[in-house]
Amino acid sequence: MNFCSHCGQRVRFAIPEGDDRLRYLCDGCGTIHYQNPRIVAGTLPVRDGRVLLCRRAISPRKGYWTLPAGFMENAETTLEAAARETWEEACARVEVHNLYTLINLPHINQVYMIFLADLKGGFAAGPESLEVAMFTEEEIPWDELAFPTIERTLRHYFDDRLGEVFPLHISDIGEEDRERYFGSA
Amino acid sequence: MNFCSHCGQRVRFAIPEGDDRLRYLCDGCGTIHYQNPRIVAGTLPVRDGRVLLCRRAISPRKGYWTLPAGFMENAETTLEAAARETWEEACARVEVHNLYTLINLPHINQVYMIFLADLKGGFAAGPESLEVAMFTEEEIPWDELAFPTIERTLRHYFDDRLGEVFPLHISDIGEEDRERYFGSA
Question: Is the predicted ipTM greater than 0.90, yes or no?
Answer without folding.
Answer: yes
